[in-house]
Amino acid sequence: MVSVNLSSSPSTPPPTFILCPSEHLHYIYGLTNEPIHNKSSKPHHLIPLDLSRINVDVERRPLRCHTCMRYSSVCDYWCETCCVPYHKECLEPPPKINVLYHPKHPLRLHCSGWGKLIKCSCCGERPVSGILYYNCRKCDFNLHTVCAIKQNILSINYPKRHEHTLIYFPRRNSLVCDVCALDDKDCFVYICYQCDFVVHKTCIYLPTTIRISRHEHRLSFTPNIYIPEEDWSIYHDEDWSCGVCRKIVDGNYGQYSCVKGCDYFVHSKCATLRNLWDGEEHEGEPEIEYEDIKTFKEIGDGRVIQHFSHPKHHMKLKKESDEGKWCQACILPIYEGNIYECMMKCDFILHETCAHLPRRKWHPLHVHPLTLQVNHIEGGTFICHACMDHCCGFAYECCEPRCSFTIDVRCALVYEPFIDHCIHPHPLFLSPKEGTKQCSLCYRKPNHSMTCNKCSFSFGLCFRCATIPNKMKYISDEHVLTRSYYHRDNIISDIYCEICEQYSYYDVGYYMCNVCCTAVHITCLLGNHPFIKHGESIIIEKTVSLDTFAPSVKNVPLTE
């Protein structure tokens, strides 16, 4: 929430008011009968945006001009009624303008329709629809209002990118950028005539040293990959695949590589995706070494521990499982494998693997280190950012200011490549962009998913389906049930779910006993919230009534 203090004093004269663009821009240029933003009976007055008068209560983030919809640290005016900022260039843009970037034709002011995304040729950003922009219809050339009116830069001297001065090349072309290896004709191009060097304007100021979520070390920009000629025979195309999109990296162009010598390479554009890069330049900064904090203290020969999540009592290693009880960390049942059990018999139990979870770790879904938290044990839920499910138990959380990333321990153990032959025969890798891939099992389109590059990226898997146990126990069957799926190319219509008592004629997951041919749907056996403690009442939200999750008499899942 951003508020502006309008009080004046003898030393601070009252500000000069300007009418808000939401009241007059569209009427002046006859673009529509209605303004972009919701009208108000209050006068829409703009005041100069004096940062000393702004109180940012939650986050200090770049402001977003409400005309061109660009994020920027430099906005000039503030509307006290709409509570939005504006560039001064966006307040009263002329209906027609001539720019050096496009000398052949004048540019005219337009308003993009809702649902139509306009890409600015100067800054390369593709903002939301419903904005003012300049356009040349003959050449399909677009500019933000602020990019068009600000001073045109025809030459750039930036030694970090290139030793010579770079000159703007006005002709629309498909020249390949030496920094990103792409030939985007909609981007401004700068060239060096001496070196035959071509670069997009948006690539000139790419950072030198960065950190992304997909790799444990920092990455540095390199203009090309040098390999001695005698070593050419030992490398193959797959050795140069991008660590984000898994496509081939052309060593003749710029890319990011690991600063510590790992054979890890990333396309320039992939490395600087907003959902992967923290937005910080780390050139010249020492890399922070985080201390390895142990989650428990061994007592005696190591069979007894004092776990940080249960500091009051000691826990003892037990070789036999206790069916019917649940692990406090992952909220999965205790059926097989070793466990740690409270020596005071207070029903606090951990799988041995969960007890050994690291206190701090990196995860490819988040750029900051995550810390293991146990504040969700005694009631309450959290929403996992990976599977988007309500969960209880242990969670990894980001402790950075203004960051609320939380992931449950099951999703935190999913890494690249993800291999589960019960689900898919090939290794799976994280999709580079959020919300772009549909899960092939549940047909949801989650924020985070994995895909198969060997199947031409046609197979997708969400974190919720990836973390469902592969084995289950069903009270009506003495054997272990294993997970399987229908497929569209091999539909079996006579498999009958014993819980919902219905046949399945479409792609759906199920558990089956290979001995008794017992079959049950995954959702019927696990329910809608499989990772919330059984037998407890949980308040999901303040505005939502209590939901009671009682143990089902039909199923006892086991972990694998």
Automatic annotation (TrEMBL):
UniProt keyword Repeat, yes or no: yes
UniProt keyword annotation of Ubl conjugation present: no
Pfam entry (one): C1_2
GO MF: zinc ion binding
Alphabetized UniProt keyword annotations: Metal-binding, Repeat, Zinc, Zinc-finger
Residues annotated as domain Zinc finger PHD-type: 176-246, 326-388
Alphabetical list of InterPro entries matching this protein: C1-like_sf (IPR046349), DC1 (IPR004146), Vacuole_Formation_Reg (IPR053192), Znf_PHD (IPR001965)
PANTHER family attached to this UniProt entry: CYSTEINE/HISTIDINE-RICH C1 DOMAIN FAMILY PROTEIN (PTHR32410), DC1 DOMAIN-CONTAINING PROTEIN (PTHR32410:SF197)
Protein name per UniProt: Zinc finger PHD-type domain-containing protein
UniProt organism field: Eruca vesicaria subsp. sativa (Garden rocket)
